[in-house]
Amino acid sequence: MKNTVATFAKMKANGEKISMLTCYDYSTAKLEEAAGINAILVGDSLGNVMLGLPDTLSVTMEDMITYGRSVARACHDTMVVIDMPFMSYQVSVEQAVMNAGRLMKEGRANAVKLEGGAAVCPQIKAITEAGIPVVAHLGLTPQSVNALGGNRIQGKSEEAAKKLIEDALAIEKAGAFALTLECIPAPLAQLITDKLSIPTIGIGAGAGCDGQILVYQDMLGLFSDYTPKFAKHFAALGKQMKEAFAAYVKEVQAGTFPAEEHTFKMDEDVLNKLY
Ligand code: KIV
Ligand code: NA
């Protein structure tokens, strides 16, 4: 059955944990859906893990649409959330609604996600009122990496924690149906989770959140540029892939690949006429 905003609300009410992963392509999305994931985020983290950029700032609407719709084509039961890229919603409410609409129409998303608290509540409200479900994102918000002074844990001081709680309440009031909490102390994430009626989805925010999300390359051991503390490796596929690539190189060099069974035949008579 399709996971919807109603599913998310029901899961929070029943105390059932919500599982999310990022995804950026059709083949991987099929595997995530087969594994029973509730929702996929086509994150602007694709800037890092797919495009090799140092941050998410250069990711475009076109990038999000291209990767987003390849994921959407694979998803039947899984909810597909597509990130709004940097500068696609900050400038004005009107631009935010138009770009959220493009992610739905062209990207075939079921919901969009954007970063920020009180400052983007007018956008959250207007997008939601256009019939587009919104996931908010607080704590470490990578699009603000330059303002935050790096990718570091957020909400440790009393002042910062109070601001986070206020922002969380504001985005709920503005109409967001879920909230991503990234890189904040676990007890603060727990407190926010208790205060909100909408589900919190944590990444580096402890087990007290209503759900969890990880970047799939991080959890599969496919990305080695850096490893955040919260990125548990559920497999070491990077190592396996490297070994498979090396085995291929060796077999090509040795002439042992392709073998008979990978090879197309031709009628001898036809062939003889060609010589
Ligand atoms: O872009 C992304 O992958 C994200 C998650 C880390 C929440 O925003
Ligand atoms: Na993101």
UniProtKB/TrEMBL annotation:
Binds 1 Mg(2+) ion per subunit. This is 3-methyl-2-oxobutanoate hydroxymethyltransferase. It holds the Pfam family Pantoate_transf. The active site is at E182 (proton acceptor). SUPFAM superfamilies: Phosphoenolpyruvate/pyruvate domain. It comes from Anaerovibrio lipolyticus. One of its GO terms (cellular component) is cytoplasm. HAMAP family: PanB (MF_00156). Its EC number is 2.1.2.11. Gene3D superfamilies: Phosphoenolpyruvate-binding domains. Pathway: Cofactor biosynthesis; (R)-pantothenate biosynthesis; (R)-pantoate from 3-methyl-2-oxobutanoate: step 1/2.
